[in-house]
Amino acid sequence: MKITQQSTENTLILSLDGELDASSSVLLDTELTKPEVLNYQKVLINCQRLNYISSAGLGVFISHLQQFQDADVKLIFFNMQEKVHNVFEILGLDALMTIVPSEAEATAI
Amino acid sequence: MPFLQKLKPAILALTVLSWLALLISTLLHTDAAMATRFGVLPDWVTLAAQATFAVGVFMYQRERPHPLRGTDFVGLLRRLLLGPGLLAAAGLGLHLLERLLQPATAASNPAFFAVAYTINVGLFVVFVAYTTYTWRSLVFFRASPTIRSNWLWFELLLGGTLLLRLLNWPLPAPLAYGMVGALAVFGIYLSSNQKWVAYLNRRQKWEAGFLQLSLLLCLTVGATYFLRIAQDPLLVAPKPQAAFLLLMAGLAAFYALMALLVTLFNLPTAGIFEQKREEILSLQRLSQLIQKGQDEQEVYDMLFDAAVETVEADAAWLDVDGEGREPVLSKSLNLRTEDISAIRSLLADYNLGHIEYLNNDLPNSSGFRDLDLRLGSLIVMPLRSAKRQYGSLYMLKEQTQGFDRENLGILQTFTTQTVLSIENLHLMASSLQNERVQEELKIASSVQDSLIPKNLPIDDWFEIGSHAAAAKEVGGDFYDFLHLPGKRLAILIGDVSGKGITAAFHMAQMKGIFHALMQENPLAKDDREKFPVPSKFMSMANRALTHCLEKSSFITAALYIIDYEHGGFVFARAGHCHTLYYHSIKEEVSYFHTAGLGLGIIRNDSYEKHIKNQFYDYNPGDVMVIYTDGIVEARGADQEEYGEDRLKQMLERNYYLEANEIKQQILHDLNEFSAGQPMHDDQTLLVIKFKTAQPEILS
């Protein structure tokens, strides 16, 4: 799992590369726990190279969900692969989280 | 040489015979009376007898087994001295004394003289042969093959020289000197290759030196005897014989002297060898003791005692790194605690407390001078493994230049051994702990197993086949059944995120929630409200879980309430895998795609908005497959997932079978798909087949 980040004034883009499982989700959790993350208006997650997400990986997003809502930070996923999207959908997360097809749409929100 | 071995009795007989011949010829030569009666044998008979005897004795000694037993060098020398040595010295010495005290002119018994002389010659030759082959044993001790082959040349040269002398073949003077010189050089060379001396301790070296000196004295007695007897008017032996015996005595004395010198020169090294020996022995002792050490303290104590003894430290202490940052003093010798702290902080100032450090000139460093401890040398030896530091050992001596590199080496070996033992103890402790945990896991596993229903509900209206397997000892998957009044059956299936113990706890909790919520509500106004509908159940469960599920955990579940009186069911899916269904009327397999959020994701009342009920009227022959994600996410050889599509195809092919057979077919296909792959997640699979109505209801 490789996480690269890229930020503008009010947007933070995290690009996930590889499989987000129990061990690699710790990395992501560290990134999302950083206090400065809540200073952005939007946190975009680029899922183009995310091949797999385990329940532990989902747990990381779920555990930060409330915090993001409280701080009025929008969490937006884009470029999600079909099978990863399926996992979000089965769990019902698509109703809670913003998942859009492309980066353009993500930034437009 | 087996051939020579076989000849041994013959050699012995020949030797005895030749000695008798020698005796007779000497008697005839010396005793005039006998000579007149029997005549005089020619000189060559005497010389030939002498040569045969000498060769025989040497050959006999040569073929005897090596007299050295183990490393009992002193015993070997003692046997040589007390046996043939003393005998020869006594015989020769007594006769020499008799000859010296007796006036030359006085009348003497020539027969007695001849017999004594011949006996002495025999004793002396035997003694020299015995000495030579004892010496061979010593030279051969741990000797290289080169030395062994050189020995043969030495024997040939020695034998040749002696026999030439005896047979009185005139050699040109330079050649004769050359041969004797070569023998001397050979002797020095062989002496310099004696390794046995190094194996003696100081006391044994003194003893060996004394024994060698005594042997030298015996040989000197021999040399003196033959020197004196050669001029004795009574002796009418051939001159070459006397020269032969003298040369033999001379060479033997020379070699004995060389061996004595070797021993003497080795005396000063005895201390060093003994110290090394002591070091090796204490290392051996240490490693044996350490293995017996029951706890860390015992092992450290052994290390400390062994180290102090071996390097002969005047003062010492051992620090063991405790839990905190400060080292804990484990043991000390001849040092006050405040001195130790002072030295410790001094070393810490130079960052020397935890590295291998040797200082042989402490008074030269101002810090130590100020402490005024009258200590001259210091070794710091850390106890360290690849992973961590266990402490440090400090050895001190009063004199400067007190320690050497070898001390450092030996301490290093000690500490390595100690660290190994300590780590062994740790490993043993942790493996015990591990065993206990394993045992507890086994119990947990059996407890969890008891939570999974063993007796599946049986009724004529449906069949159920079930399968559950945990990836670890305990798992997070669960399913349960509950009969509700009015021919209704509640089926719960679910999956706690994560695996192992935490998941198992939540799974047990979920089972408790299921049974608690599925109680009849006595206040309900009508039958429908007596039991919560699935969506209501889910939001109640969500509320119940809010406070006990950690933030990043969630649970997916699906609750089905089958009303087999009315031939329908209602279910709610809380983030759980989609239900796979075979519709017998349409002859079609599909998934129920309903919305529904997992439990524990939203932890407030807004959850209700995210969960829906789905009603369906089933027909006989319909098949419902419910499962956890361990089934569809099982990986194949190329890391591909089993997937919903494969599962669907399996049902399309097998819907007509009985529930249990359908389950078997699916599992068979799944196992084939993921053969050789580790099981990543718990797997649960339930197959429910609805059957035709009972005849009695129809009637």
TrEMBL record, chain A:
Domain of life: Bacteria
Domain named STAS: residues: 1-109
Record GO terms (molecular function): anti-sigma factor antagonist activity
InterPro entries: Anti-sigma_ant (IPR003658), STAS_dom (IPR002645), STAS_dom_sf (IPR036513)
Family: Belongs to the anti-sigma-factor antagonist family.
Name listed for the protein in its UniProt record: Anti-sigma factor antagonist
Species assigned in the record: Hymenobacter daecheongensis DSM 21074
UniProtKB/TrEMBL annotation, chain B:
SUPFAM superfamilies referenced in this protein's UniProt entry, alphabetically: GAF domain-like, PP2C-like
Transmembrane helix keyword on record: yes
Signal peptide annotation: none
Pfam families (alphabetical): GAF_3, SpoIIE
Domain PPM-type phosphatase residues, every copy: 459-690
Domain of life: Bacteria
Transmembrane segments: 42-60, 80-97, 109-130, 151-167, 173-190, 210-230, 242-267
InterPro entries registered for this protein in UniProt: Bact_Sigma-Reg, GAF, GAF-like_dom_sf, PPM-type-like_dom_sf, PPM-type_phosphatase-like_dom
Keywords from the UniProt entry: Hydrolase, Membrane, Transmembrane, Transmembrane helix
One Gene Ontology molecular-function label: phosphatase activity
PANTHER family reported in the protein's UniProt record: STAGE II SPORULATION PROTEIN E, STAGE II SPORULATION PROTEIN E-RELATED
The protein's name in its UniProt record: Serine phosphatase RsbU, regulator of sigma subunit
Organism expressing this protein natively: Hymenobacter daecheongensis DSM 21074
Biological classification of the source: Bacteria, Pseudomonadati, Bacteroidota, Cytophagia, Cytophagales
